[in-house]
Amino acid sequence: MKGIFIYPSNSLILYDLVERFGHKPLAIMQEIRKKVTTAGIDSPPLNITPEDPKRGLKYAAVEVPAGVRGRMSLLDPLIEDAEAAILVEDAPIGFGCMGCQRTSELVGFLIRAKRIPILELNYPTSDADAENFVYRISEFLKGLEGATEADA
Amino acid sequence: MNEIEVAQISCGSEYTGIQGEIESAAERVGAKIIFPDIDLDEVEAAEAKFGLKVTSPDLKLMLARAISVVEGHTTADAVFIGTCFRCAEGALVRNEIRRYIHEKSGLPVISYSYTERTTADTLLTRMEALTTIAKRRSLLARETQAGITAGIDSGSTTTKAVVMKDNEVLGFGWVSSTDVVKSAEEAFATALQESGIKRDEIQALGVTGYGRFLLGDAFNADLVQEEITVNSKGAVYLADRQKGAATVIDVGGMDNKAISVNDGIPGIFTMGGICAGASGRFLEMTAKRLGVDITELGKLALAGDASAISMNSYCIVFGIQSLVNSLSKGARHEDVAAAACYSVAEQVFEQQLQEVEVREPVIMVGGTSLIEGLPHAMHELLQAEVIVPPHAQLIGAVGSALLASGFIEE
Predict the structure, then answer these.
(1) Secondary structure, 3-state, B396-408
(2) Which of A10, A35, A100, A103 to mutate to test the interface with B (most CBs of B within 10 A)?
C-alpha cells in the first residue's frame, strides 16, 4: 500500500479511486479533521490560526500571500508522506479545488520535485475521455507496489 | 437596534487564520458576518456575467457572491471585501468588486487586504464606520451644530478639543497626546476656558480618535464615534460642502484616511497605517532635520522645488536618508521641504487614492493640512481643487461636537 497524494486535494472521486485499489489517499479532509477535532484550538471555520501561515514559510517566503502559506501548512504532511501522486489539471470546481491557483501551481511543482511516480491528467471532457481517465488511473494504481484489485 | 448584517466577500481569510478576527470586529460593533449562499452553477457562470476572468476558484466565488448581493438574492446592510495582502489577482478582483457593489447597489462597502497578523483591533474602526453608514443615517444627516456641545479627538499624536455654540467654534485646545485621559482633560479645559463656557453648561459631548472608548467612559460622552464618519461630517461642514460629492483626505500622525463622500456620507474609504513615511511623523522629522518648527515647514516648501531632490524611498528611514544626502550635497532647505511634502502626497496618491473615487473638491484636514506644502503637492498631483477649511486641524473634535448636538434633541 502506498500513500497517494491527490490533487485537487479534496477530490472525493480521486479519493475513492485510490482507496478502491488498496492504497492510502492523502487528502486535505484528513488534515482539516485533525484541526477541527483538536481540543483547545478555536479559530473557526477550519481552526487554522495565524501560526499556520507562519509554518507555511517552509515552502514560501513572507512576500507570498498568507492564504497560500496557510494552505501550504495544511498540505505539508500530505506532501511529506506522498509516495506517488495523481494530479488532475483543469478540473471543474465540483470535482475538487483548493480555491487558490497560486497554491495549485506551487503544490504541482513540489510534488514533481519529489521524483515519485506521478500520473498527470487533464480533466475529461467526453465520455470516451472519461473512460480513458479512469482506466489510466486504475492502471497507474495497479502498477504501484501493494495494490489490490478494485471492486467493480 | 436590529443586528446589522455584513456580507463577507473574500478569498483566503479562513486559510490565513483571521476569520475569527473579522467576525469579532463585526460583533464588537453590533454586526453579524453573513456569507451569500451560492450554487455551484452560479460560480461557474460568474466570470462571464461579471466580465472578469480569473484563475483562482475562490475569486470566482467572490464574483458570484458579489453578483448575488447586487441582484438582491442576498440581503445585507453592508459589505466587507477581503483578499490576501500581496495577491495581485486578489487585489484586482477586490477593487473591481468594490466598485461594482458601490455603483450597482449603493450599499456601504469596505475592503481590506489581510495577512496572518491582521487583528480585530485593526479592523474595528473600519467595521464601526461601515455599520454607522449602514444604520445611522439620521446621525449622518445632521448639517448644523445646535446648542452648546463639545468634541474631543484623541489622536495618536495630538489631542484636540472644541466647544461649540450655535454653529460656531467658541474655543479650542490642542495638546500632544501622552496619557489619553489626562491629555483630553487638558485640551478640554483649555477649550472651555477660551470659550468662556462652564463644563456643566455643555449639553452634549462627542469623542473620537484612537482613545475614544476610554474617553467615552471617562467623560460619560453622549457620542463615541470612529474617525471616518466624524471626519467626513466635520470636513464637509467646515468646508461648507455638505451637498454633493467630495473627497476627504486626512494625513494623520499614525495613519491616513481617504474618504469619498456624497452629501456628507462616506462612501468608499481607506485607512492606511502601514508606512510612517506617508504620515505627519515624516514631516515632523524633516522639520527637525531642517532646524525649523513644523509650523514653518509648509511655507518653506512652497518656496522650493521638489524635483530638485532625488528621493529614493518612501520609507521614513531611507526617505530621511535621501534628504540628508541632498543636504550634504548643498541642497536648498526649501527644496528639501518641498520634496518631503511631495513624497507624502505622492505616497497617499499611489497607495490610497487609487482605492477611492477622487471627486472634487478634495478637502484636506488634520494638522498636516496646515503644512501648506502638503495640500499644494496634492493639488499638483491630482490637478484638482484642494480646500483646507478653517479649523482643519480640529476636524475630529468639530465633527464630534457637530454630531453630538443630535443628542440634545433626543
Answers:
(1) HHHHHHHHHCHHH
(2) A100
Q: CATH for A3-142, among 2.40.128, 3.30.1560, 3.40.50, 3.80.10?
A: 3.40.50
Model confidence at B280, pLDDT cuts 50, 70, 90, reads: confident
CA distances from B267 to A43, B356, B363, B379 (A): 31, 9, 15, 22
Q: Do B86 and A94 touch (CB under 8 A)?
A: no
Distance in angstroms (rounded) separating the CA atoms of residues A26 and A44? 23
Give the residues across from B113 on adjacent strands.
B83
pLDDT of B270 over the 70 cut: yes
The reply to whether residue B116 touches residue A64, judged by beta carbons under 8 angstroms, is no
pLDDT score, position B262: 87
> Nearest CA of chain A to the CA of B103: how many Å?
27
Interface check A45 vs B, CB under 8 A = yes
Q: Which residue has the cell 448584517?
A: B5
Contact B86, A63 (CB under 8 A): yes
Residues 101..140 of B with a Cβ closer than 8 Å to A: which?
Answer: 114-117
**pLDDT digits 0-9 by tens, B42-61:** 999 999 999 999 999 999 99
Q: Is B351 in CB contact (< 8 Å) with chain A?
A: no
Q: What is the pLDDT of residues B247-268, one digit of tens each?
A: 999 998 778 899 999 888 888 8
B409's grid cell: 434633541
Predicted confidence band at B274 (pLDDT cuts at 50, 70, 90)?
A: low
Please name every residue paired with B334 in a beta bridge, in sequence order, or none if there are none: none
* Distance between CA atoms of residues B210 and B70, nearest Å: 34
Can you list the domains of chain B with their CATH numbers? Answer: 4-135 (3.40.50.11900), 144-228+395-409 (3.30.420.40), 242-388 (3.30.420.40)
**What pLDDT does residue B410 have?**
53
Mean pLDDT of chain B: 92
Q: Give residue limits of the domains in chain A.
A: 3-142
**Confidence band, pLDDT 50/70/90 cuts, at residue B321:** confident
Nearest-angstrom CA–CA distance, B181 and B173: 14
3 state SS of B246: strand
Q: Could you tell me what percent of chain A has a pLDDT over 90? A: 82
Q: What is the complex's ipTM, to 2 decimals? A: 0.92
B209 to chain A, minimum CA–CA distance in Å? 28
- The C-alpha atoms of residue A18 and residue A70 are separated, in whole angstroms, by 26
